[in-house]
Amino acid sequence: MRRPSKGILIAVVIFCLAAGAYWFFKDQKPGPKPELSEKHAAVVASVTVEPVRMGDLSTEITAYGDVVPAPGAIQVVSVPYESRVNSVMVSERQKISRGDPLLELKASPSTILELDQAQTASSIARQKLSHVKELFALKLATNAQLLSAQESFRQAAARLENLKKRGVDGARVLRSGSTGLIDKVNIQEGAIVPAGNPLIEIISQNRLEVRLGVEPDVINRLSEGDPVRLNYVDISGAREITGRIRKISRAVNPKTRLVDVFITLPPSTGYILGEYIVGRMVTASSLGLVVPRSAVLPEHENNILFTVRNGRAVKHLVRVVVENDKDVQVSGPGLKAGDMAVVVGNYELKDGMTVRTSEAR
After folding, report:
1. Architecture label for domain 46-57+287-359
2. How confident is the model over 218-263, as pLDDT tens digits?
3. Which residues contact 288 (CB under 8 A, 6 or more apart)?
């Protein structure tokens, strides 16, 4: 059998190539170049914008604390002479009224001895004065001697009278001078207590205040006299009252690691010592750039915000100065009042992305 000639093989190859080229170009449809297709297919984000404005931002601080004695609220009961405690009639944390008996005291043996000595000295001084007066009438005593005897008698009598007025000459019942709460009982029955030692400490009921703890970074936005809305922590539906800041501590409380803020209470609040209280204080920031909360997004450990310029998204790294439930005061490079901040659709944005905007209603 004869093999095909070389010319025939070449012709077959050419025919196959031509047929392939024909069918290839026949199936191709005219269209734009690839780069043009990609350009036209670029994503355009639809966003809602709102202008950045300049203003102050009010925010509410919530703080917790308790009811404590106000300055001068603690009254100390004591006696000015050494005494013996016959009876204690109250206990700690007991509520008392004005005039209620607290304890019964009697002069100690050494105080009784002091009283006896004063009585003896007074009697001797009286006798001596009488004798000097007789001598003076007989011209046997001088004016100086008479004056000296009179002065000695006055001093002895005054000392004796002072001891009697202080109750040294008998048992004495001490009574409360105000309505309040027994804070401390420092003695026991039968004890001998020195003169001036604190026996009982009473917290006056109408001299209480609230101590709240706040974060150190907010105290510069609080001022003495600012109103504070107060209520019980654990009692729902209780009536809210308004107090005012009396004093702001300038040191961190080592127990709570917060700064103490002391709130003066209005009269007749019904609060009692040690109750847990929640306080709400409205503060205002300094003048700054304000945007809606939805405009600020978290990014790792930072916060970002997008504005729109010339139809493209511009990314800003911002610092949150203060915020409330509705708005945020921010600061950041390149951001100014009047810029259009993206408030809806900003989660999908990238820096430089083309956007189509509509303003918030």
Report:
1. Beta Barrel (2.40)
2. 888 899 999 999 999 988 778 899 999 999 999 999 999 999 999 9
3. 54, 55, 56, 57, 321, 329, 330, 331
Q: Pairing relation of β-strands 276-284 and 227-232?
A: antiparallel
Number of neighbouring beta carbons within 10 Å of residue 80: 12
Tens-digit pLDDT profile for residues 82-96: 888 999 999 988 888
Q: Would you tell me which CATH number, out of the four given (1.20.1560.10, 2.40.50.100, 2.60.40.420, 2.60.120.560), belongs to the domain 74-203?
A: 2.40.50.100
As a whole number of angstroms, the distance between CA 192 and CA 103 comes to 13
Measured distance between the N- and C-terminal CA atoms of the chain, rounded to whole angstroms = 92
Torsion of CA 119, 125, 127, 129, to 10 degrees: -150
Q: Which two tokens stand for residue 14?
A: 């050419």
Q: Tell me what pLDDT residue 5 has.
A: 56
pLDDT at 33 over 50: no
d(Cα 47, Cα 70) in Å, to the nearest integer?
56
158 Cβ contact list (under 8 Å, min separation 6): none
pLDDT above 50 (res 34): no
Query: CA torsion sign, 148 to 149 to 152 to 153?
Result: negative
Q: Cα–Cα distance between 148 and 247 in angstroms, integer? A: 57
